Amino acid sequence: MTTSPIPTPEVAEKVFGDRTGLAVRYVEHLATSGIERGLIGPRERDRLWDRHVLNCAVLGEVVPADARVADVGSGAGLPGIPLALARPDLRIVLIEPLARRVEWLDEVLGDLGLDVVVERGRAEEKPVLRRWEGADVVTARAVGPLARLACICLPLLRQGGAMLVLKGASAPEEIARDAAAVRALGGGEPRIHETGAGVVDPLTTVVEIPRTGAPRRNRRKERR
């Protein structure tokens, strides 16, 4: 059974410019093999542009120019691939532990011709950390609560870099709940950004947490 093509919203060109055609192909991959291989739920097909691709791409509004970006738990390449399409100046690695997802990501990136690296593994594993630590930005979407994300993401960052986490309307409550744990892990004061004005509705909520220090246990070791 064939399915109808997914219409491309006019606003896509505002976000992706001359890479809009590549964004269209990415959505086609998500809508076909992405669903067939279990990376995207079938009910998401009609919401791929607004809920997933554009929602992730507007994260680029708060990413510095020419940044080194590690996308943790990339899954179907969200937010890493939309970010790479919208911001070709970025150097991006997609970190994903599951082999079937890594295989799919490699296939899609090969078809799109994007200069994006895929790393199979978990961000907290020492070999992965050694290869990719010192990032300017670490991104994550739907990976876990802020305290756990800080534990995973902050070690990958250089001092002064920031984790940028896509969250929902409950972001303020989550920040308040996990503030002490984030500080203990070397995180600074969280900041909430609302991105995507004129592109997505509702706006994309991004929680920014800078790396301002080392975890407390490491500080104790340094004093000995």
Briefly summarize what is shown.
The protein has 224 residues and is α/β, with parallel strands linked by helices.
Uncertain regions spanning at least 5 consecutive residues: 219-224
- Beta-sheet strand percentage? 15-25%
Q: Indicate the mean pLDDT.
A: 93
The count of strands amounts to 7
Rg over CA atoms, rounded to whole Å, is: 17 Å
How far from one another are the termini? 67 Å
**Tally of individual helices:** 9
What structural category do the secondary elements indicate? alpha/beta
Largest sheet: 7 strands, mixed
Strand order of the largest sheet: 3-2-1-4-5-7-6
* Helical amount: 40-55%
Order of helices and strands: HHHEHEHEHEHEHEEH
What's the overall geometry? Answer: globular
Provide the fold topology.
Layout: H1 12-16, H2 20-36, H3 48-57, E1 68-72, H4 80-86, E2 91-96, H5 99-112, E3 117-120, H6 126-132, E4 135-141, H7 146-153, E5 157-167, H8 171-184, E6 191-195, E7 204-210, H9 216-223
Helix pairs in contact: 3-4, 7-8
Question: Can you characterise this structure?
Answer:
There is one protein chain. The chain is of the alpha/beta class and 224 residues long. The chain is built from 9 helices and 7 strands; from the N terminus they run H-H-H-E-H-E-H-E-H-E-H-E-H-E-E-H. Helix 3 (48-57) packs across helix 4 and helix 7 (146-153) crosses helix 8. The longest helix has 17 residues, at 20-36. The N and C termini lie far apart (67 Å). The model is unreliable at 219-224 (pLDDT under 50). This is Ribosomal RNA small subunit methyltransferase G. One of its GO terms (molecular function) is methyltransferase activity. Its EC number is 2.1.1.-. S-adenosyl-L-methionine binds at residues 73, 78, 123-124, 141.
